């Protein structure tokens, strides 16, 4: 018990400390004894409060709080999914065998939470290959889909589990089973999982299937570029699809060349041109060719790449790099109705998943002569998202400010503007907007993430950690917030070790 001491510096142990030590000793012994301790959220919260108010060693306190979070999450998952799902997901083979062989559990039993997820899907999504083999041996349906249409193969594709994907396919998994996010190939492409994509294509996955979101696998991997996979990884995945016969000029949701140009992916544009993509196919929204999109956004390098492959445009008198850029910039924004929102609409169709641009993609552009306040707000969101995509955070902030004037109760606008403030160094303004976001939408984890980020930039690490903790209470599985929490925690420790007493246990 040397890690526990009284606040007055004495050598004794207070009653509350003894109670805490006993409680923590119980859960520690449960873990060491080979079983998972079960604890309700209420009990865990009470124990956390006890830890925070105690004199425990800071490292021990962190470890115990992390352990409490883990066992609480595990208990909640077990309650939501079911005991066989829990055992399969954790690779507890003795428990799996007991439940199936002694208690007669159905290996295809759906989860208790209404998701329709099977024990096999749980074992696949957690990478528990021994459990996967056992459940297949016991007759698990490897093509059974949950309420989103995901089969076990989708989960292997999403996580990038090459070996499990190969195992499922060898046992007869449907390579093109469809879901709300498309086939396993769509899912693997959307997450840049090269190895799984290769395996799926070896098993004759269709390279041009269109998902419910109107995307081909080639479009999916381009949408994921610089979000879930770097451009180099994107190129590798594209090469796989092209070799498998993917249509280079499919317009679902736009041609690959339009998508790559809109996202400024120079390497991808060069590759597509090299393998024969048509540079003259226009975008769906606005009807512009890739070279016009590149010129409008000021991407000179892309204009230079596209120029030799593009047929001259009749209305461009100077068919040169400079002439095309000048033409694109001088072109009236009202031409062809909705062309002023060309880039934003393309980003909308691509389902851009970045934090700030996500909401922009949910809105539709409207012609200027028919704008209501709601339509105007939606258009400002689109412009804000486009500005963020160009890293013009000052411009984006102005668009979000205008939108807030139209609708001061939209929490997303404050969240997005907080992000922009942070990017341009306006730290206190970022915090103000984060607090406004939380006030308007207290159940949304993103607001607490923004608040924590603002506090981190202000070097207010305890406040940042508290904000991230509040976000985790709402969304315990959010990896971004988890990582941010521990980053703030580490910063607190470093600041404390430098001589500033901020540790709450001290």
Task: Give an account of the 3D structure.
Helix content is 58%, strand content 0%. It has 506 residues and is mostly helical. The protein contains 26 helices and no strands. α9 runs parallel beside α11 (194-202), α20 (373-389) runs antiparallel to α21 (393-406) and α24 (445-457) runs parallel beside α26. Residues 330-371 are annotated as: Disordered.
Question: Which key phrases capture this entry?
Answer:
26 helices; mainly alpha; flat; disordered C terminus; Serine Threonine Protein Phosphatase 5, Tetratricopeptide repeat
Question: Can you give the helix content as a percent range?
Answer: 55-70%
Classification by helices and strands: mainly alpha
What top-tier CATH class of the domain at 343-497 fits best? Answer: Mainly Alpha
Order of helices and strands: HHHHHHHHHHHHHHHHHHHHHHHHHH
Radius of gyration: 27 Å
Keywords: ANK repeat, TPR repeat
Biased composition (Basic and acidic residues): 350-371
Region (Disordered): 330-371
InterPro entries: Ankyrin_rpt (IPR002110), Ankyrin_rpt-contain_sf (IPR036770), Cul2-RING_E3_ligase_SR (IPR051616), TPR-like_helical_dom_sf (IPR011990), TPR_rpt (IPR019734)
SSE diagram, text form:
Elements: H1 15-32, H2 41-53, H3 58-81, H4 83-90, H5 93-102, H6 119-125, H7 129-137, H8 152-159, H9 162-170, H10 184-190, H11 194-202, H12 217-224, H13 231-243, H14 256-262, H15 266-274, H16 290-296, H17 300-306, H18 321-330, H19 342-349, H20 373-389, H21 393-406, H22 411-423, H23 427-440, H24 445-457, H25 461-474, H26 479-497
Helix pairs in contact: 2-3, 3-4, 4-5, 4-6, 6-7, 6-8, 8-9, 8-10, 9-11, 10-11, 10-12, 11-13, 12-13, 14-15, 14-16, 15-17, 16-17, 16-18, 19-20, 20-21, 21-22, 22-23, 22-24, 23-24, 24-25, 24-26, 25-26
């Amino acid at each position: 018990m040397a890690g526990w001491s009284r606040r007055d510096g004495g050598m004794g142990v207070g009653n509350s400390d003894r109670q805490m030590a006993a409680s923590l000793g119980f859960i520690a012994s449960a873990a060491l004894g080979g079983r998972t301790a079960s604890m309700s959220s209420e009990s865990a919260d009470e124990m956390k409060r006890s830890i925070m108010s105690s004199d425990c060693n800071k490292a021990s306190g962190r470890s115990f709080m992390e352990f409490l979070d883990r066992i609480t999450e595990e208990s909640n998952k077990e309650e939501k999914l079911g005991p066989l799902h829990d055992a399969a997901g954790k690779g507890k083979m003795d428990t799996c065998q007991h439940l199936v062989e002694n208690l007669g559990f159905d290996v295809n039993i759906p989860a208790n939470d209404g998701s329709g997820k099977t024990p096999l899907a749980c074992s696949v999504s957690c990478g528990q290959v021994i459990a996967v083999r056992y459940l297949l041996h016991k007759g698990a349906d490897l093509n059974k889909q949950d309420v989103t249409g995901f089969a076990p193969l989708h989960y292997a594709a999403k996580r990038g589990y090459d070996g499990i994907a190969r195992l499922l396919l060898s046992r007869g998994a449907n390579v093109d089973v469809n879901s709300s996010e498309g086939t396993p190939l769509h899912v693997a492409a959307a997450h840049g999982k090269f190895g799984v994509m290769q395996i799926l294509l070896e098993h004759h996955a269709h390279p041009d299937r269109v998902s419910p979101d109107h995307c081909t696998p080639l479009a999916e991997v381009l949408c994921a570029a610089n979000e879930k996979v770097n451009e180099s990884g994107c190129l590798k995945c594209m090469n796989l699809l092209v070799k498998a016969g993917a249509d280079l000029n499919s317009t679902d949701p736009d041609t690959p060349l339009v998508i790559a140009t809109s996202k400024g992916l120079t390497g991808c544009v060069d590759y597509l041109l090299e393998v024969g993509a048509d540079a003259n196919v226009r975008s769906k929204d606005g009807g512009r060719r890739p070279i016009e999109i590149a010129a409008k956004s000021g991407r000179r390098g892309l204009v230079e790449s596209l120029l030799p492959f593009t047929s001259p445009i009749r209305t461009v008198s100077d068919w040169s790099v400079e002439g095309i850029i000048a033409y694109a910039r001088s072109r009236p924004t009202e031409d062809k109705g909705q062309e002023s929102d060309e880039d934003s609409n393309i980003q909308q169709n691509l389902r851009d998943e970045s934090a700030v641009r996500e909401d922009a993609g949910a809105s539709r552009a409207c012609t200027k002569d028919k704008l209501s306040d709601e339509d105007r707000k939606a258009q400002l969101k689109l412009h804000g998202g486009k500005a963020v995509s160009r890293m013009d955070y000052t411009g984006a902030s102005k668009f979000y400010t205008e939108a807030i004037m139209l609708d001061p109760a939209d929490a997303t606008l404050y969240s997005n503007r907080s992000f922009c403030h942070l990017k341009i160094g306006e730290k206190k303004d970022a915090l103000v907007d984060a607090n406004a976001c939380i006030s308007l939408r207290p159940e949304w984890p993103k607001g607490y993430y923004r608040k924590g980020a603002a506090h981190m930039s202000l070097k207010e690490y305890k406040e940042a950690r508290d904000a991230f903790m509040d976000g985790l209470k709402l969304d315990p599985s959010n990896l971004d917030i988890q990582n941010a929490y521990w980053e703030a925690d580490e910063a607190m420790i470093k600041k404390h070790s430098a001589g500033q007493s901020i540790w709450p246990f001290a």
